[in-house]
Amino acid sequence: MEPMTTYSVYKWLRKKRRKKKFDLYKQTYHMVVDPVMVFYSGLFVIFCLFIGYDWLQQLITLLDGRGTFIAPYAFFLPLLAIISASVASFTDPGLRFTSSELQLSFLPHSRKWLLTYLFLEKYIVQLLIIMVVPLPFALVLMSWESAVTWVSLLLISYPLSLWMQWKLFSMSSVYKMSVFLFSAAFSVLFFLGFPVLLLYLGLSVIVLVCFIRKEEVDWGRVIDINDARVWNMWLVGYFTEVNIKPPKRFGITKSIWKKKRGRHYSAQHLYGRIWTGYLQKSADVVWKTIPTVCLIILVIPMRVDWMLMFTLPIAIVVYHEVAGGLFSDVEGVFHPLPIEEESCKNSYLKWAYIGLLPVFISFISIQTVLGESLVAIGMQLIAIILLVYVDLARVIDERLMMVQKENFYREEWRRVAGLILLGAGVYHPLFLLGVPLVVFKIGRSTLKELIS
Amino acid sequence: MEVVLEVKNCNVDIQKERILRDISFHVKRNEIMALVGHNGAGKSTLMKTMIGSREKITGTLSIAGNDQDAQYKSYKRNFTYIPEEPLLFNELTVYHHFKLYQKSYSVPEDVFESRVQTYTQGFELKDKLDEYPEALSKGMRQKVQTICALIPDVPVLFIDEPFMGLDVYAGRFLEEELIRKKVQGACIVLTTHQLEKVSELANRYVMLVEGEVASSGDVSEFHELERRST
């Protein structure tokens, strides 16, 4: 029997991958999509296409020949390709060589050929995209000579960028940064009117250096990242709330941060490191919460100014509850380790307080826009900081006691009173005088008052 | 001998299905107890329940008189755990892990330093102290996890498949260390599929079959697992 060629195996593998992904999408579709909704959405899309066609016809006559001024910038594309490759190479190898391709390479199939197929496949797809989108636009916007120049340089720049990204990915950060800085410098010279040929010569030197340098590919890193990228399907992840992420050790900051390998750390420092990692893992929640809370403070009062009395306490409660919720996973974070409570809480609170900075900035901004006096803003800010400082610590304290299966007494009404006074303080700063009274009382009551 | 770990009438459900039924046993000081059973018998679930990472429906668990529900914090301070798959923190180096366990269990500095010295030598990890977990092989990560659990002096040591992933020398070193811990007064609960280890190391055994204690007693009474489908 004839052995299968590398190409046929590669094709077969890709086909199976597409099928599995399609099945996953199908399952998600059956899980979340209502056929009636799809029918009406389909009608809506067809309707939009007709509108779009009409709009495009008007736009074409309007744009015809108006893009001539961007024609000379086509020569900037190779420089842009190298810049984007150097930036992307910090986190992404570009070519989707996954663990399946690696397994194939352990069979009698060449890894080099597999990479070549991946490269060609990506290039052909890009080629088709260029033909469908930028080429027609270029033909409408500029003369056909300029359009051909743009598209030709695009066709050269894309594989160059892809190849550079792949090469740079396994190189040290210093190399990546150097390539970025050089290509950025060339870009500046381009806009200063430096001869393009000389700049391309410089660029060729960079490419040549990368070509000559025989860096071993960091296969482990390539595979971890690619597996996550290939199988993290946005739509499926969105509906199932399961997102596949590459191990976080591959971020830009991670590799720099990890170089600090001191040995003499306090418990709080060690806890701090663990919480930092945990918050990075929970980045989705963090990055949704902080802007949401800022928007609560900013958007509604922008239209109805007195609403700030309500939105400020709501924003604080939302932030505290999310921070408390994230902290509740403490058992999952530290596994069966007994927790050194103070270090654990303090190291988490440090980050929780830092996360509030954008909220404070949002509050100051909206009050400035609404024309509040500086004295009043100052007083309100002090009251907010005071309340947040004590209340957040109390929330975290309570969550830890819940996790540790301890009994405690919750004085919710004092918390509510503090928030009402804070809101009222937005109406008139005099109300803020009540905040310290309530807050300091809360402070005393957080001493674990056991019911039993 | 004083009873250190006591498990009484524990029932555990996973997704409304009863996985452990009315589990009761105890382990005394200076004793190694082996939890044996086929795959899916409930050994790991029981282990997770004992370390508190899985909730039980009914029953009580206590270590040195500290009830898991009523005195959870003290309960947790009284055991260490070596999981089958190492649970290491990506943010910490090998040495940081040891330090974290030292701080968490309040191990005196001099004791800590001497133990780190002994264990890193015994497990051949001396040159890996400043490495992060991802730079270590699976076996090495298992060694780090094992050292972490051996550093504190606690009444109970839970071990899920202790010799999995360890090389011959590390396995032998761990065996010696477990016996030393036992002689010093600790009690050890381990799960293993290596039945010869059960007779070599353990004093008593508890056999689980489909989530129930099928038999228990002195290890000399233990012969072998019967085939599940006969």
UniProtKB/TrEMBL annotation, chain B:
Gene3D superfamilies: P-loop containing nucleotide triphosphate hydrolases (3.40.50.300). Residues 5-230 form the ABC transporter domain. Keywords: ATP-binding, Nucleotide-binding, Transport. SMART domains: AAA (SM00382). InterPro entries: AAA+_ATPase (IPR003593), ABC_transporter-like_ATP-bd (IPR003439), ABC_Transporter_VariousFunc (IPR051782), P-loop_NTPase (IPR027417). It comes from the Bacteria. It holds the Pfam family ABC_tran. GO terms for molecular function: ATP binding; ATP hydrolysis activity. The keyword Oxidoreductase does not apply. Transmembrane segments: none annotated. This is ATP-binding cassette domain-containing protein. It comes from Halobacillus litoralis.
